[in-house]
Design goal:
- The chain has helices at residues 14-25, 44-47, 76-86, 104-110, 118-122, 128-136, 146-160, 189-192, 206-217, 254-269, 316-330, and strands at 4-9, 29-35, 58-59, 67-70, 90-93, 124-125, 140-142, 164-174, 197-198, 224-231, 238-246, 275-277, 293-300, 305-312.
- By secondary structure, it is an alpha/beta fold.
- Helix 1 (14-25) links the parallel strand 1 and strand 2.
- Helix 6 (128-136) packs parallel to helix 11 (316-330).
- The radius of gyration is 20 Å and the shape is globular.
- The chain starts with a strand and ends in a 16-residue tail after the last helix.
- The mean pLDDT is 97.
- Bound molecules: NADP nicotinamide-adenine-dinucleotide phosphate.
- NADP nicotinamide-adenine-dinucleotide phosphate is lined by residues 10, 12-16, 36-39, 71-74, 76-77, 94-95, 145-146, 177-178, 180-182, 314-315, 318-319.
């Protein structure tokens, strides 16, 4: 049987390059076309020596494909996707351009007027653990942001089951690849190595996405989310720590309550292929290069506060891996195909 022809728009960024690696290793699809503005006309393997086995020329325009990933920056992504949708191509957009349901939020958080507000309702938010059935039938899937992936997977069971009060703190630490491959003083070696910093204290762009999706899980909660991202000196990975007061009487007291909480998380995620509920707190290194999200829910018994720690690789479950997971669902393939690799350790 002929393999599905897949294209990557903007292969020259970190997400695009990671997608090329994953699509090349995928047994049921073929990497047919890759675009990149600065490297058009060059061989992919020359630009990225770790991809030298892939025989593919980087072009300015996307060739003939059945399925496309866009790894463009926001705003530019919507512009390249709209003509593809008209041609009937199925698309996973890894930018933020179709994640928010309210078009006015794009002006507020991303500073552009959305070119196709009518598509925002149609686009499916690509978190398979919450929207698997809708993703399967979608033409356009909006791949979640890296921080929202870690935060939503950590909080979804507690919010859905009404375990917590609405005042939630999400504290995330990201490796510098989260800021992309574009040169930026903040991510220079001498600025970022041996240093950790908080940023976007007045509101990060991923906040409306986190709030939108938590509210969908429990519209009666009237959430108040404080989200503070941090930059830490590592290439990949996001560690997210979430805190919220537990409602009284929802769980048993003491250690038994902690066990009940972990069981509730295990029941919520059931046989999810990429979620693991752990008895101890994970490290970012435990997800390096893999599509897994490791989650440790527990209770601070002194304050009766829920504490949930999650770990992902921002370029895999937080980006390219989740995009391939969505592609598998959209093409009717087995969901974990091409994504079974365990993390690289140490
Ligand atoms: N990094 C992550 O962890 C992560 C996770 C989830 C989602 N995302 C999203 O995925 C997308 C790609 O992120 P990334 O981290 O891979 O970015 P990146 O490494 O910074 O790559 C961005 C590249 O886009 C190209 N570019 C910039 N403006 C362009 C334009 N107007 N038209 C065409 N090309 C343009 C540039 O490549 P040339 O020099 O070749 O033009 C630039 O190097 C973004 O929307 C980002 O928000 C990123």
């Amino acid at each position: 049987m002929e393999r599905v022809k897949v294209g990557i728009i903007n292969v020259t960024g970190y997400i695009g390059a990671e997608l090329a690696r994953l699509v090349y290793l995928h047994p049921e699809v073929e990497l047919a076309s890759v675009t990149g503005r600065s490297a058009a006309g060059q061989e992919l393997g020359k630009v990225f020596p770790h991809l030298s086995d892939i025989n593919c020329l980087i072009t300015a325009e996307l060739g003939d494909v059945d399925f496309a990933f866009s790894a463009m920056p926001h705003k530019a992504s919507a512009e390249v996707i709209l003509p593809l949708l008209k041609r009937g191509v199925r698309v996973v957009d890894i930018s933020a351009d179709f994640r928010l349901k309210d078009a006015s939020e794009y002006k507020r958080w991303y500073d552009f007027v959305h070119p196709a507000p009518g598509l925002l309702e149609e686009a499916v938010y690509g978190l398979p653990e919450l929207y698997r059935d809708k993703i399967s039938g979608a033409q356009l899937v909006a791949n979640p942001g890296c921080y929202p992936t870690g935060a939503l997977l950590a909080l979804a069971p507690a919010v859905k089951e009404g375990l917590i009060y609405p005042d939630i703190i999400v504290d995330s630490k990201s490796g510098v690849s989260g800021a992309g491959r574009i040169l930026n003083l903040v991510t220079h070696y001498s600025e970022a190595s041996g240093s950790a910093s908080a940023y976007s204290l007045d509101g990060h762009r991923h906040l409306p996405e986190i709030t939108q999706e938590l509210e969908m899980l429990n519209p009666e909660l009237f959430l108040e989310v404080t989200f503070v991202p941090h930059l830490v000196p590592m290439a990949r990975g996001i560690l997210t720590s979430c805190y919220a007061k537990l409602k009284e009487g929802k769980l048993a007291e003491g250690e038994k309550g902690k066990e009940e909480l972990r069981q509730l998380y295990r029941d919520f995620y059931g046989d999810e292929p990429f979620i693991r509920i752990l008895d101890a707190s994970p490290q970012t290194k435990h997800t390096w290069g893999s599509n897994f999200c490791l989650i440790h829910p527990t209770i601070d018994l002194r304050t009766n506060r829920l504490v949930v720690i999650s770990c992902i690789d921002n370029l895999v479950k937080g980006g390219a891996g989740q995009a391939v997971q969505n592609m598998n669902l959209m093409l009717g393939l087995s969901e974990p195909t091409g994504l079974e690799a365990l993390a690289i350790y140490p």
